[in-house]
């Protein structure tokens, strides 16, 4: 048995295909990545050292049973994609590509984070039955897909979805997502294999806005850099990519490139309820620069005879400690906030979100992180700026009452998590959640808070 640190829920049982580092690099240089993924047979368990988010997205189409990865943490982008496509996976399993051989039967237990190589028939049977039970429990949640989102005292809340593409949007609709709280546009740039032009982007954004039929769609501008690179952009190699030239920094440094995306979003806004969200904001000046550019582009579009929503909202992600600390000031420059807990944890705790050795620090319940989230929500409320949470914390039943108790009413989560988030909210009244948070905020340690949460769990 092998142990991993992080997971994507579900149980997968299948036949191993091991993909070592050398084989991956050879595939990348030979340009045969797509061919490899389309050759995988349904029922395969892929065992790899590392896969990029774009490679994991390809697993969606080939019906693999599960995925084991030696590297990666809970909120590494690769793990986020696995979760969003509902693929059972265990991350952070050192030595997996050595311990498992091609053709081995493998059980991927994404519920508990264990991987069983060459299980005996009894264990395989046990897991086949657990898999059935898991599927049953998912079915029980289905009734929450069509319900309104209400807390136990009938307080209204909303469950939006995080999506990468139109297929995720369809999953969001199937699961009862009330809007798109985060459209990560990186996938559009990666899939195209080139920088997508304005028309190509207008088509992609319009399609999503039209599919959502008037419901809100928050399009995040390109969040490139960190653990997401685009080979055709020829970005400089950096020794600290997560602290480097990424997201809005890259966009503002490459204005024509950025303008193409903003123009496309503006044009698509004529056809649906679209907002613009800016990633990795750290200071007011960045936000002002973005808004000035949006203003300038609107005037160009007007001169060229294009329609757009003149009242389009421009908001920012609060995912750096600096943004949270000055959230009262950023609120004056932003139409909305969305708290990105994945990066907020990484930057507050100085712990790379993809590094399993520091996974113990990647916890939303670290008091420093909780204070920043609380401060952000308080500042947003004082300024009358809507605030949501779109990091993985928003989908975690253990963390939802904390966020709700702090005043969050919009949760943006991977489409598969919508019913569970709705059920969790239905179990908590506002006053219970507020009391819960006020107890938690007095505790000085992540371990103490986790223990308290275990004792207070409602499911
Ligand atoms: C986050 O940082 O919490 C977030 C939602 O953005 P991403 O995971 O894409 O970095
Ligand atoms: Mg982020």
Taking all residues together, what is the mean pLDDT?
Answer: 94
The CATH topology annotation of the largest domain reads as TIM Barrel
The CATH homologous superfamily of the largest domain: Phosphoenolpyruvate-binding domains
Fraction of helical residues:
40-55%
Low-confidence stretches: none
Structure explained in plain terms:
The chain is an alpha/beta fold and 459 residues long. The chain has two domains: 139 residues, Phosphohistidine domain (Glucose Oxidase, domain 1, 3-Layer(bba) Sandwich), CATH 3.50.30.10; 310 residues, TIM Barrel (Alpha-Beta Barrel), CATH 3.20.20.60. It is 44% helix and 15% strand. The protein is built from 20 helices and 16 strands. Strands 1-8-7-3-4-5-6-2 form an eight-stranded mixed β-sheet. Strands 15-14-13-12-11-10-9-16 form an eight-stranded parallel β-sheet. Helix 11 packs across helix 12 and helix 17 packs across helix 19. The chain is globular, with a radius of gyration of 22 Å.
Layout of strands and helices, then pairs:
Elements: E1 2-3, E2 6-8, E3 11-19, H1 21-30, H2 33-39, E4 44-48, H3 53-58, E5 66-69, H4 77-84, E6 89-91, H5 96-99, E7 105-109, E8 114-117, H6 121-141, E9 158-163, H7 166-174, E10 180-184, H8 186-192, H9 198-211, E11 217-220, H10 248-253, H11 255-268, E12 274-278, H12 284-304, E13 313-318, H13 321-325, H14 327-330, E14 337-339, H15 341-349, H16 367-383, E15 387-389, H17 400-406, E16 410-413, H18 418-426, H19 430-441, H20 446-456
The protein binds phosphoenolpyruvate (PEP) and magnesium ion.
Phosphoenolpyruvate (PEP) is lined by residues 80, 182, 184, 223, 319, 340-343, 390-391.
